[in-house]
Amino acid sequence: MNVAADRQYPGETGDNSYGQNLLTRVLAGTPPGEQPLIFAADLPSRVSRFADWPEWAHPAVVSALRAAGIPQPWRHQAEAASVAAEGEHVVVATGTASGKSLAYQLPVLTALADSHDTALYLSPTKALGADQLRSVTALTESEPELSSIHPAGFDGDTSTEGRQWARANSRWIFTNPDMLHIGILRSHQRWARLLRNLRYVVVDECHSYRGVFGSNVALVLRRLRRIAARYGASPVFVLASATTSEPGAAASRLIGAPCAEVTEDGSPHGPRTIAFWEPPLLESVTGENGAPVRRSAGSEASRIMADLLVEGARTLTFVRSRRAAELAALGARRILSEIEPDLAERVAAYRAGYLAEDRRDLEASIADGRLLGAATTNALELGVDIAGLDAVVVAGFPGTVASFWQQAGRSGRRGEGSLVVLVARDDPLDTYLVHHPSALLDRPVEATVTDPTNPYVLGPQLLCAAMEMPLSDTEVADLDAAEVLADLSARGLIRRRSQGWFIAADSDPHSSLDIRGGIGGQVAIVDGESGRLLGTVDAGRAPATIHPGAVHIHQGESFVVDHLDLEDGIAIVHAEEPEWTTSAREITDIAVGDISVHKRYGEVDVALAQVEVTHQVVGYLRRLASGQVLDSVELDMPAQTLDTRAVMYTITPEMLANGGIGTDRIPGALHAAEHAAIGLLPLVATCDRGDIGGVSTALHPDTGLPTVFVYDGHPGGAGFADRGHAELVRWLSATRSAIVSCECAAGCPSCVHSPKCGNGNQPLDKDGAIGVLSAVLAAVAPESTA
């Protein structure tokens, strides 16, 4: 066990006996013989660094902020606010609870106080937008000189009357990119008052805009800038971000214009104890092919949360899905009902899908202490002002370092000691991180990956832009979109006239574009008994997520799919509460197209290429909550093709033989290395394992060699394979370390097993995977294996 409670980090010192005592209590509840604590360290406190109120700030705004309990700003707040007030786009990238809101509230409210200027606020979640609206409303209501601003919300929860009032009266609209895309830009003539006077655009938690969603948001913001320019406005963008790598460059890609960055955090923070926790392998339960299975992170997190609540520690537990949030809360309540019944009623689940009034009540209950504990998805990760939490439990690494620190930062916001526990899932990335804590605690946060030039994203966005206002040749050239437009024109979707590019008269491109990642048609999920529409999923993901027999969760209700019709775009389900979950099994073929980057390292070749992936769902596994596989069910689903990008490497059979991997072991060795690499790519690219896929083969027809591919699971690519190619050595080194660190004998879900393997996780050669990765790294970067 690598427990280093005295580990030192840069910053101020600070006693955290409270956090250490909480960890001791949690350890006391561990069953005899188990040693799940892999690592612990104390992160010191940080002292405040203040600045004076800027001279340009409006006295009424300063008075309102002082009355709200802010005697003076921290340095980063004043610096970012001043850059924006001078008319320069700026991103402030500092930690959780560092008061980034003031960095935009100060210049926006100052500008709006004595003018007819307007502002727009964008957030990725409703909870965050509602929280910021409450804060700004309180400020404007406290000072008569700010009363004409009338901040108002405009999102899916806003009534028709509320939307009309906001459009007619509000000078600061709080919304999200989805509503900007479909509710404001599509009908921009109705929003002429807002757009004509638009002085500022606030983009909150901008690090969350990544991959296909981020690429779409980048193009939505470009559309906003061109429409604002039509009305004579040139707004300043103020962006707020978690601490990310190269925040200025990422923000510039997002808004399409140069952006200054402010990164030195002047806010205080109490000391924290960080603990990495790995549930044990279960002796009585086995998974696919008899592989060992760990106790689930969700059940472990429920037990830890219950122990913390008994100690009186206000606790937030982050989980990966809506269903997991419900189950974690139920688990903690069940444990508490046996030992502290009064506490059981002070635990709840919080997730998207609840009614707006229910969400607001839960947020208030967590903030004021009526609820002592809550299990939540990342819906409470961003921005919502919840102070006074004593502990945070993170059930499974949330996918990015930025998200981990956002979640961890929810604790200790009163400046006092706190505890953060990361509970590892049965997953290669989690295995790697708990055994290599420096990979999480000591390294920079990831750079945000976006690619607005992706033709599969750019095409639909161009149609929306052309419908809002004809595209000029200059705009087409600036976007490097001539080839994409030519394709759209050939399909009759857009046409060139002397005044520019015009969309077909009967088109409705806005409604068909899901900016959060759904590309292509949508499949409706309908309850066959009531006829109720439960939701939609894009057609590309439907075979793997709503195939016949799949368990589908909707707002806490469980359904089983009876029928999927891809042609008609409908899936029929019925209500059922099975004891198992399902995961699709797919078989995949891949063909290499254009190779954009290629380099040879002796007997190893590495490339970045356009590929055509053909995949077919051939069945699914049914698993109990323990991880035990009940059975495998076969399916006959149509094959689908995907044009995307992949990072790939080849290795000669001779080199493998020299490493002790004979011909008979090559398929299993490559297969295991591919699975583990998919699991570890999120370490270097801001993606989820579900965003990517992989193929390995002992003899690929396009290379004539043993080959491993890892590809983006989105048409055209989302930048993840490119990031893996750029960080190949760090990525594959971490992959090898994760396999070596796993305590299983021959492979398990914590290292080389994949939950969606079409070959039933056969063949897999754990030791062979280590050999393959060692050989590749020895060729590409000899120092990495020295």
Structure description:
- This is DEAD/DEAH box helicase.
- GO terms for molecular function: 3'-5' DNA helicase activity; ATP binding; nucleic acid binding.
- InterPro entries: DEAD/DEAH_box_helicase_dom, Helicase_ATP-bd, Helicase_C-like, Helicase_put_actinobac, HRQ1_WHD, MZB, P-loop_NTPase.
- The protein is an alpha/beta fold and 786 residues long.
- It folds into 5 domains: 200 residues, P-loop containing nucleotide triphosphate hydrolases (Rossmann fold); 204 residues, 3-Layer(aba) Sandwich (Rossmann fold); 58 residues; 61 residues, Beta Barrel (Thrombin, subunit H), CATH 2.40.10; 196 residues, no CATH class.
- The strands form 6 sheets. A 7-stranded mixed beta sheet has the order 1-9-16-15-12-14-13, sandwiched between helices. Strands 4-5-3-6-7-2-8 form a 7-stranded parallel beta sheet, sandwiched between helices.
- The N terminus is likely disordered.
- Helix 3 packs parallel to helix 4 and helix 16 crosses helix 26.
- The chain is built from 27 helices and 29 strands.
What's this entry about, in short?
The chain is of the alpha/beta class. 35% of the residues lie in helices and 24% in strands.
Main beta sheet: 7 strands, mixed
> What general form does the structure show?
globular
Identify low-pLDDT runs: 1-14
Tell me the span between the first and last alpha carbons.
25 Å
List keywords for this structure.
single chain; Rossmann fold; seven-stranded parallel β-sheet; 35% helix; seven-stranded mixed β-sheet; 27 helices; 29 strands; disordered N terminus; globular; alpha/beta; 786 residues
